[in-house]
Design a protein that fits this description.
alpha/beta; Rossmann fold; 5-stranded parallel beta sheet; 56% helix; binds adenosine-5'-triphosphate
Length: 203
């Protein structure tokens, strides 16, 4: 199995940006959010079960999940959220394992937003990389590119680990509190380190 770095971070910390930098440098990026979106896109593998469980109202004309409607439902109802997760999580897991098995790069970067909360992907990774940023930046960045209100962003943050707890569990840390160029050079450094670790079979 390919050497695998697990990457996580709170909402809006810069995970997608960091993953893109690693991918450009040649890492084999596997992102659970991307997989989840594919599973619920038009005729995605999760759609038959979603239609059967939640009804045709949650499926649009193309066969894709009506995301806004589902978001609203699970935001207010934990049991419905658990039902959606019971459909998605096993499918995501299977796809993650298949994607990792196909990585031909020197190492894989597995992006899991709730890596340290759910812990189910920890056995697949050799190292944990945390992207960290001040909470004010998380809120501002997330609000700037979604329709979420400040209260909604804060409520999502409440269901995630605190910054200090996440940082405590990190093997490697990327602090994304400045310019993107600064973040990029930090990613370049880590990439070189991961190449060495992967080729030496180190942890
Ligand atoms: P989510 O948890 O919502 O998926 P994320 O952790 O993947 O978010 P990104 O999508 O990478 O975070 O970043 C959130 C937003 O903030 C994006 O619009 C991104 O372009 C912007 N951003 C990230 N880092 C910086 C930075 N250092 N300076 C300015 N903007 C940034």
């Amino acid at each position: 199995m390919v050497y695998c770095v697990g990457m996580t971070g709170g909402i809006g910390c810069g995970k997608t940006t960091v993953a893109r930098f690693f991918a450009e440098l040649g890492a084999g990026v596997v992102d659970t959010d991307d997989i989840s979106r594919e599973l619920t896109a038009a005729d995605g593998a999760a759609m038959p079960a979603i239609r059967a469980t939640f009804g045709a109202d949650f499926v649009d004309a193309s066969g894709a999940l009506v995301r806004s409607k589902m978001r609203q439902l699970i935001f207010t109802d934990p049991a419905e959220k658990a039902q959606l997760e019971a459909i998605l999580h096993p499918l995501i897991r299977t796809q993650v394992e298949a994607a990792l098995a196909q990585v031909r790069a020197s190492y894989a970067l597995l992006v899991v937003p709730l890596l340290l909360e759910t812990r189910q992907y920890l056995p697949l990774v050799q190292r944990v990389l945390v992207v960290d940023c001040p909470e004010a930046d998380q809120i501002a960045r997330t609000m700037a590119r979604s329709q979420l209100s400040k209260a909604e962003v804060q409520s999502i943050m409440c269901n995630q680990l605190t910054r200090s707890e996440r940082v405590r569990q990190a093997d490697d840390l990327l602090v994304n509190d400045g310019a993107l160029e600064t973040l990029h050079s930090a990613v370049q450094k880590l990439h070189l380190d991961y190449l060495v670790r992967a080729s030496a079979g180190h942890h």
